[in-house]
Amino acid sequence: MRGLATANAAISIVNALPLGVGAAAGIAWPARASATLAPGARGSATTVIEPRRSRNPFVRATVRASRERFAPGLDGRVSLLVRSTIPPARGLKSSSAVGSAVALATARACGSEASPSEVATVVADVGRSTGLSATGAFDDALAGLVGGWVVTDNRSDRELRRFRLDPTLRVALWIPPGRHPSSSSVRARFRRNQRLARRAVDAALDGDWSGAVTANTELVERAMGYRYGPLHAAVQHAGALASGVSGLGPAFAAVTPVERIARVVRALPSAGIRRGVRFAGAPPAPRGGRT
After folding, report:
1. Burial of 59: CB neighbours in 10 Å, binned 0-12, 13-18, 19+
2. Residue 192 contacts by C-beta under 8 Å, 6 or more apart in sequence?
3. DSSP letter string over 89-128?
4. Which H or E run contains 244?
C-alpha cells in the first residue's frame, strides 16, 4: 500500500510560547512525503527513510507514532521518501510541514484517511516528546494542512477559531542567513511581556489578523533581539498591510495585496532569500500577474 501527502509551511500570526495559544496561516510552500507499506510478519515493523538528511529522530518518531495511532498492530516495512525545500530553523514551520506530510502519508499507506486535526495532534505530540518544540506547535501543523488561518490552544491541541483569508492577499518573505535557537531555550524570554502576548491573542480570537501580527512581532523582536524597524517601514511604504517576524525568526513576512507583491519583495534586503508566495489554498494570480 502506498500513501502520498503534502503539507505546507506557515507564517506566525501569534507565537504560542507566552500563553499557550498560537495562531498561524499556511503558505504555498509544500513539503511532500511518499510512504509505502510492505506488510510483514508480526513484530517486523521497520522503517527506511530517504534521503539521508531526513533520517532524524523527529521523522522516525513521527512514522512510529503515526503507525501506532492510525494502524495499531499492523506490522511491515515502511519505506518513506521526503521532499522539502523549506529552510529549516528559520521560522517557517519546516518541521511541522515535514512532520504533517510524513504522518499523513504513513496513515494513508496503512489504509487510514486521518483528519487534519488528527495529523496535527500526532505531529505536536512528537514535537514535544522529542524536544523539538516547547509547545508542540499544533497551530503550525494544522495551518499547513487547512486553508485560511487558525487559532489553537497548544496546551490541549484544540482548535479555537478558523478564519478565511482574502484570496487576493500574498506574502512577501525575507529569509536571512542564520537559524533560530530551540524554543525551549528562549521560552522564559516570551513570558516577560504578558500584556503584548494577551493583546496578540485577543486580536487573533477576534479575527483581527493584522492587529495580532503587529502585537506579536513587537513581542518576538523584543524577546529575540531583532531590529526590524526599518524593514517594517520599508515594506509599509511599498504597500504592505502588515508585517512581522515569523515563528522565532529570523524569517520576516509582509502581507500585501497581489498587485503590490513585486514592489514589496523588491523592498526587502537582497542578502538572503526573498520571494513572494500565496497563502495555502489561495488561487494563483490572474494571467500576467505575479505571485
Report:
1. buried
2. 223
3. TSSS-HHHHHHHHHHHHHHHHTT----HHHHHHHHHHHHH
4. strand 242-245
CATH class in words for 2-163: alpha beta
DSSP string, 203-230: HHHTT-HHHHHHHHHHHHHHHHT---HH
Phi, psi of 96 (to 5 degrees): -65, -40
Q: Residues 243-261: what's their mean pLDDT?
A: 97
> For the chain, which residues make up each domain, given as ranges?
2-163, 169-278
Tell me which DSSP letter residue 288 carries.
Answer: T
- The label of the residue with cell 495511532 reads 69
Q: End-to-end distance of the chain based on CA atoms, in angstroms?
A: 37
**Quick check: bond before 87 cis, omega within 30?**
no
Parallel, antiparallel, or unpaired: how do β-strands 2-14 and 21-38 relate?
antiparallel
Q: Specify the amino acid at residue 10.
A: A
Give per-residue pLDDT as tens, 111-141: 998 999 999 999 999 999 999 999 999 999 9
Nearest to 84 by CA among 74, 75, 93, 94: 94
Tell me the per-residue pLDDT of 22-68, one tens digit each, with 9 for 90 and over. Answer: 999 999 999 999 999 987 645 556 788 888 888 899 999 999 999 99
**AA letter at 43:** G
Residue 123 · residue 154 · CB < 8 Å: no
Question: Which residue bears the cell 512525503?
Answer: 33
CATH of domain 169-278: 3.30.70.890
Between strands 46-50 and 77-84, the pairing is: parallel
Cα separation, 69 vs 141, in Å, equals 17
What pLDDT was estimated at residue 290? Answer: 41
